[in-house]
């Protein structure tokens, strides 16, 4: 994971193509549950601060925690964001110290259920009663759909990768392709993140498709729709319509699970 992110490509990932939709949909879903500003927010696994920035601009008090020094250094330059090195499984924060917890990175980099539950439990511990957590996961079938959309099944190694991933959730790129096809990560079925949240003590967790079926659009087509406000809004309307439909959740590249602390 460290070697993957030391390539310093995270800043631009959400700035174009499918990343535009991932960012906007994550933002609008999170804002449904955010308390009024100024609220205290911890952005766990917040990377270079893409989400922390807009949260701070809304007037929230934002602490960002990330395991990659390069990310923390960049996030620390954002006005209104306090960025520190840390581990999602053991946060350096008091019990019930935040109004909202955002986890848009850790869960797919924590490869064992034990570690993922530790991150969920830490989110629950530092959250105030009545507050919400919003946690991103990668869909179990993300690499399968990428193979279809990008014609990656021409590579035997990719076919073997997907065949294994859809069975056990572990996305394991071959050693000779350490970064072309992401890095070793865990891809969730939609119901798995619900069960993890429940085991950590969260109430009524709900899973939302972030990109939904729109992930099939090419980067050029995505950018064209975003450039036209009417086309962009029609796209978002369609995704909202089926964002919680169980039969289509697995089509989305990313999922967002939201739960509440009692």
Automatic annotation (TrEMBL):
Domain (Methyltransferase) ranges: 41-131
Keywords carried by this UniProt record: Methyltransferase, Transferase, Ubiquinone
Recorded superkingdom: Bacteria
UniProt KW DNA-binding keyword: no
Single GO term (MF): methyltransferase activity
InterPro entries: Methyltransf_25, SAM-dependent_MTases_sf
SUPFAM superfamilies xrefs: S-adenosyl-L-methionine-dependent methyltransferases
GO biological process: methylation
Pfam families per record: Methyltransf_25
Record protein name field: Ubiquinone/menaquinone biosynthesis C-methylase UbiE
